[in-house]
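Inverse folding, one chain.
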């Protein structure tokens, strides 16, 4: 590991808290791995939910040690430090501001499992400080950040892996190879599914008292508008996913896994030419048995986007209410080929069928660890081309969610009848039967008690996008604000030229 300077771990203050006798497995091998003081030093930033998997990913790898845990919530941070101390035999340093960790020259790697709107800045700041980065999906909260992240990885020669871990799972890798070698014939259409039940998050209100006292709300807000601290949702953590100031709805949460697989399967290393979306945040009135109920979320829980790539189409369906599967998949992708179908059923299972519906082949195997291993291998080899989910892929896949949401947000007030929706969608060029997809969506909503006359679906404009320039075409220039955000002083994302 020539690129990582040797350092005398045992002399650093970080290790003074090591429990006597509790020598961690990370320090026991003398002959079968790198010396302890050659270990790759890691920080995990944002450690409540998914950050726990980053901690495991690094702890399970004998080449790495966790020297920093970073969270703006002190309570979350100290409790994770306790866990890591027990597992690796010494306590990582806890800091609330990621910049303190990034300033440490001994730090090599940053895992970022912060909320979406922090992904871009955390990764860019880390790369500018010379660190390699494993950043969670969606790689970005908006498309602007993605362009800078791609440029930063190149400029600073950093490894930047995105947390779309299916990219490293044998089930997916083998299935994609099979399909790319013609296993189901010619394939030019994929349907991605994010059918994941999401309940209402509580009525819109003032829940400022629910901001935990252990949280630094200024740092938590970061690049998003500072709401002086005012909280409009009941639950502080996690439910930010359903408020667009911070999250991207489920098409930009669970969605990027399946959007990424759809794009990968169709071999599309570029943005779409056009996108149109219809949807709504529907069904919670019936769920609460209150026709006036409005929850604190403002992202769609029902969303269908049609991505036009010229000679290929991806349709992406998000459903947050109870729904049956399609071909055995709820959170998956169905690829339609001239000779059959390939269904990604889950993260560890894909099934190929012939035209008669007989199973041709099954593909199995998954583990989160594979993706972390792939990242650390690249950190060691310095070969960015060996990353299974490099930042360019993460950027392209997250951008699909952003473009889909852009059409939805712009058309939010354009409420349409089922009839009009069918007619408008029939005009959209696609390899799908657009009308059939509308009618399936309508049937699903009705089955969940949605009154489409009282709460109709919205239809967005079909937006034309220039995949090379990464901006909307002139006719859709009015949509450009959807590609960026209002940045807050002190937390401004640099542009490609500024990075
Ligand atoms: N790859 C996957 O399968 C997968 C699974 C779950 C979540 N995720 C992604 O991981 C991210 C985190 O999701 P979660 O469910 O853990 O969310 P969460 O809200 O439960 O946890 C986020 C944590 O980040 C902390 N945080 C916020 N701003 C911070 C900052 N500036 N510096 C340090 N810490 C900060 C919060 O205090 C909290 O502890 C999301 O972007 C999500 O999309 C990925």
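Residues assigned per position:
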């Amino acid at each position: 590991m020539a690129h990582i300077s040797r350092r005398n771990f045992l002399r650093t203050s970080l290790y003074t808290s090591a429990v006597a006798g509790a020598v961690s497995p990370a320090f026991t091998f003398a002959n079968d791995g790198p010396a302890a003081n050659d270990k790759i030093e890691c920080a995990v930033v944002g450690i409540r939910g998914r950050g726990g998997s980053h901690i495991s990913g690094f702890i399970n790898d004998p080449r790495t040690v966790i020297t920093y845990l970073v969270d703006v919530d002190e309570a979350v941070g100290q409790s994770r430090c306790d866990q890591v101390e027990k597992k690796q035999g010494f306590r990582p340093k806890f800091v609330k501001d990621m910049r303190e960790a990034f300033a440490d020259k001994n730090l090599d790697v940053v895992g970022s499992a912060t909320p979406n709107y922090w992904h871009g800045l955390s990764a860019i700041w880390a790369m500018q400080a010379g660190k390699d980065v494993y950043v969670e999906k969606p790689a970005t909260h908006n498309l602007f950040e993605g362009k800078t992240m791609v440029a930063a990885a190149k400029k600073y020669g950093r490894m930047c892996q995105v947390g779309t871990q299916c990219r490293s799972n044998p089930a997916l890798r083998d299935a994609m190879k099979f399909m790319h070698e013609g296993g189901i014939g010619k394939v030019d259409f994929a349907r991605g599914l994010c059918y994941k039940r999401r309940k209402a998050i509580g009525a819109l209100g003032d829940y400022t008292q629910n901001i935990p006292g252990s949280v630094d709300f200024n740092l938590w807000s970061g690049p998003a508008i500072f709401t002086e601290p005012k909280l409009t949702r009941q639950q502080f953590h996690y439910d930010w996913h359903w408020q667009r100031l911070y999250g991207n709805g489920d098409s930009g949460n669970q969605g990027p896994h399946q959007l990424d697989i759809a794009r990968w399967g169709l071999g599309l290393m570029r943005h779409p030419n056009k996108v149109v979306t219809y949807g709504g945040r529907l069904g919670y009135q019936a769920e609460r048995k209150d026709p006036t109920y409005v929850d604190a979320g403002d992202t769609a829980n029902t969303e269908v986007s049609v991505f036009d790539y010229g000679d290929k189409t991806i349709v992406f369906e998000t459903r947050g209410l109870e729904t049956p599967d399609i071909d055995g998949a709820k959170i998956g992708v169905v690829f339609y080929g001239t000779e059959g179908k390939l269904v990604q059923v889950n993260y560890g299972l894909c099934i190929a069928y012939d035209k008669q519906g007989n199973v041709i082949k099954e593909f199995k195997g998954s583990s989160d660890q594979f993706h972390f291993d792939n990242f650390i291998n690249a950190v060691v080899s310095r070969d960015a081309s060996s990353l299974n989910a490099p930042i360019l892929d993460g950027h392209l896949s997250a951008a699909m969610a952003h473009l889909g949401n852009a059409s939805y947000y712009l058309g939010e007030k354009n409420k349409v009848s089922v009839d009009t929706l069918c007619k408008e969608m029939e005009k959209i060029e696609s390899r799908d039967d657009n009308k059939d997809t509308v009618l399936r969506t309508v049937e699903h909503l009705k089955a969940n008690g949605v009154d489409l006359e009282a709460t109709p679906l919205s239809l967005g404009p079909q937006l034309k996008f220039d995949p090379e320039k990464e901006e909307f075409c002139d006719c859709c220039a009015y949509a450009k604000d959807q590609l960026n955000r209002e940045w807050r002083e002190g937390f401004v994302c640099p542009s490609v030229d500024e990075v």
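The first strand starts at residue 40 and ends at 45. Residues 1-36 have pLDDT under 50 and may be disordered.
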